[in-house]
Amino acid sequence: MKGELxxxxxxxxxxxxxxxxxxxxxxxxxxxxxxxVGFWQKVKEIIGCKVPALHPATWTRDLLSGDVCSxxxxxxxxxxxxxxxxxxxxxxxGKIKWNAIAAAKxxxxxxxxxxxxxxxxxxKPARGRCHWQKPDAGWCKVNTDASFQEMSTLGSGxxxxxxxxxxxxxxxxxxxxxxxxxLTAEAMAARDGLVFAGAHGFEKVHLEVDNxxxxxxxxxxxxxLSIVSSLWQEIxxxxxxxxxxxxxxxxxxxxxxxxxxxxxxxxxxxxEVWLHSFPQCLASVAESDCNPVxxx
Length: 296
Description:
Elements: H1 2-13, H2 26-32, H3 34-47, H4 59-65, H5 71-92, H6 100-122, E1 140-149, E2 154-162, E3 168-176, H7 182-199, E4 204-209, H8 212-218, H9 229-239, E5 244-249, H10 256-262, E6 271-274, H11 280-290
Parallel strand pairs: 1-4, 4-5
Antiparallel strand pairs: 1-2, 2-3, 3-6
């Protein structure tokens, strides 16, 4: 009898108390359990943070490396995992009913306070509006941007290539199907921008994008562990095909031409290329970028 009770006790603790799955572990509690799935859905709805694809064996290292998502999202996910673990323990001891919405709102407010404190300490001067900057002499600048629609899994990319004088040399808009997330769309646009630049004979290329997560990932040697590992590899290989290559981040307002270009893609014409004449909406934005009006 004692042996039977002991076996039952071990089996009970070896199952998830939320969904009954065998082999309950921290990764299951944090991301796979019924409670976790509901919690992260509320986090996404309330905060806009989407958990990246993580591997059960390396998820903690991948998060802490900063290669898979932004610093703010890492903080949110770590706090979320802590909340899920605390909620699991509370339920196991019959103390409280854990509320996913309340937990998500509490964590969002806590992280916003922490991030606000960090920003106020590190970035006291207000950032002025930035503009597109011309590349170095003899170089061309390749600006890329992407759009992504989560419900339809459709995306689009825009590529604008300009010379040291700011003159548009070429532009391309391309539509994408079955895109899993926004970071993948941004990586696809960057990849296509380099392919486009190489196909037209540019040798000194300065790639500029407005997604800081992607820039950090491309500058890291850990991109093979990210959700865009294959694109990370393609972009790095393409960058080596040029005589000279640079990569930099720009704020959205300094990337308006590529943003407008991405909006010109359509499913009826999956790829649009302009080499000599450009759509008026794109030409106007590019001209404004090169000759910004500075208010006194």
